[in-house]
């Protein structure tokens, strides 16, 4: 009855009511035990272009583009209309024994942008389910081929691949797994390809050799006959926008090919324009994976959709196997959702018409302006690629040690920036920026100016509290 009363109350609920309802009924993602089910977060009322407006009416630059996904910006009437039109035509069909036209057309369009022989698409509801699908397909593929022991998965420190059980088992960010279980018997972890954290005095070239040697040695030690897949983001996004050294991914791809290990490129963040291309694997890094996972920008966040692009070679090997009746027992109620696929088609039209070109043109300016923040003594490094970047704060640049620093320094910066008109994504001692791809040079100037002031105010706070002296 209490819930029913709350529901009736929402007929005239304002921001204060929403906050109270959230504290009483809403479980937020990634909560702490001490506040789970009893917290409210910043309430956002509306969005327009690169901006969002909070419950107090403050206009903010959407620095993270939602969650790496609002690529063509908020309030695009074209996408809203497509959602309406498709829902009125066909709102849903079961994918178990029927299909819809938007999903078939979208699969064709996506395959046309994919590198190598990646030509078939399985649609999911998001990034986690896309990675989960790729891994389950790897298991199925090896079972059908008579290699049931070839199931281990190589992942890396700093990685983030999702929140479902198997995808989350691959994660390598600090604190992600402190209190959570995972399929640890299936995952082998490698070092993060983070040049900023390479051993002191080591060149980037030598660091690359170390990473490649570690990969090769791990395959030899564990056994190629036991390793089914390597899963890697072209740029480690939630791990702090870690851009790998030049040539590293190509060398890892060759080792995978030589040892019959499926290379899964996790492009949940980097695809659909974040790096200026529909897919970064081929166009930016010169690799042709066996599978690519995607989500987020495929609909610019307007509808939950993700997927896996699969190599024609893998499917042909299955079709030629001695087990034609083997079933890939995997699917989702909302696989190939007609509304989501229709939205993705229109979103892809918009990206192809002008947004991809604009993103490529404005990205160098975005990176250069953010790089100026390295003038601030709290900033250890600004790094990035395309329209994604990370400002990493350190206690001192010599040791690059963030641990002496207030671990909530990112949240401190975000709080100051919020007051000044910018939403930041804080990650412990880092601030991640990935604005909508339609951002202009003038808006980049505004964003960087606010971020500079937010970091400066945070430095003043830390000095005043005796946490850091600079």
UniProtKB/TrEMBL annotation:
Coiled coil: none
Cofactor: pyridoxal 5'-phosphate
Keyword annotations: Aminotransferase, Pyridoxal phosphate, Transferase
Record-linked InterPro entries: Aminotrans_3 (IPR005814), Aminotrans_3_PPA_site (IPR049704), PyrdxlP-dep_Trfase (IPR015424), PyrdxlP-dep_Trfase_major (IPR015421), PyrdxlP-dep_Trfase_small (IPR015422)
Keyword match Signal: no
Pfam families in alphabetical order: Aminotran_3 (PF00202)
Classification via CDD domains: OAT_like
GO terms assigned for molecular function: transaminase activity
Keyword Transferase: yes
Superkingdom of origin: Bacteria
NCBIfam families in the record: PRK07036.1 (NF005447)
Family indicated by similarity: Belongs to the class-III pyridoxal-phosphate-dependent aminotransferase family.
Full protein name: Adenosylmethionine-8-amino-7-oxononanoate aminotransferase
Species annotation: Mesorhizobium robiniae
């Amino acid at each position: 009855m209490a819930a029913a009363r709350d529901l009736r109350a929402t007929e005239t609920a304002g921001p204060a009511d929403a906050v109270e309802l959230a504290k009483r009924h809403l479980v937020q993602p990634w909560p702490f035990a001490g506040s789970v089910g009893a917290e409210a977060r910043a309430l956002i009322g509306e969005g327009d272009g690169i901006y969002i407006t909070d419950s107090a009416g403050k206009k903010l630059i959407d620095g993270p583009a939602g969650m790496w996904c609002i690529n063509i910006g908020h309030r695009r009437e074209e996408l809203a209309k497509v959602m309406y039109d498709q829902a009125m035509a066909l709102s849903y069909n079961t994918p178990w024994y029927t299909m819809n036209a938007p999903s078939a057309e979208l699969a064709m369009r996506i395959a046309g942008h994919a590198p190598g022989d990646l030509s078939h698409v399985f649609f999911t509801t998001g990034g986690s389910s896309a990675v989960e699908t790729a891994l389950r397909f790897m298991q199925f593929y090896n079972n059908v081929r008579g290699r049931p022991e070839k199931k281990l998965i190589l992942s890396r420190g700093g990685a983030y691949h999702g929140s479902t059980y198997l995808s989350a088992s691959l994660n390598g960010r600090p604190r992600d797994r402190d209190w959570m279980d995972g399929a640890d018997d299936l995952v082998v972890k490698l070092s993060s390809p983070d040049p900023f954290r390479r051993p002191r005095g080591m060149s980037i070239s030598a660091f690359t050799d170390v990473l490649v040697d570690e990969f090769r040695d791990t395959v030899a030690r564990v056994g190629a006959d036991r390793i089914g897949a390597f899963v890697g983001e072209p740029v480690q996004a939630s791990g702090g926008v870690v851009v790998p050294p030049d040539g590293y991914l190509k060398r890892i791809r060759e080792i995978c090919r030589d040892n019959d290990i499926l290379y899964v490129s996790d492009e949940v963040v980097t695809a659909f324009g974040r790096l200026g291309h529909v897919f970064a694997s081929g166009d930016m890094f010169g690799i042709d994976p066996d599978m690519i996972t995607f989500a987020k920008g495929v609909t610019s966040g307007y509808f939950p959709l993700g997927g896996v692009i699969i190599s024609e070679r893998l499917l042909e090997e299955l079709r030629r196997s001695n087990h034609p009746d083997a079933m890939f027992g995997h699917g989702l109620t909302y696989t190939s959702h007609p509304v989501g696929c229709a939205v993705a088609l229109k979103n892809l039209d918009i990206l192809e018409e002008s947004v991809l070109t604009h993103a490529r043109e404005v990205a160098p300016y975005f990176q250069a302006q953010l790089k100026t923040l390295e003038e601030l003594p709290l900033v250890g490094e600004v790094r990035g690629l395309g329209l994604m970047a990370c400002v990493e704060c350190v206690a001192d640049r010599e040791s690059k040690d963030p641990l002496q620093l207030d671990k909530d320094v990112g949240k401190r910066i975000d709080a100051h920036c919020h007051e000044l008109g910018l939403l930041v994504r804080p990650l412990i001692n880092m601030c991640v920026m990935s604005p909508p791809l339609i951002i202009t040079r003038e808006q980049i100037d505004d964003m960087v100016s606010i971020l500079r002031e937010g970091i400066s105010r945070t430095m003043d706070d830390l000095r005043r509290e005796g946490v850091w002296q600079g």
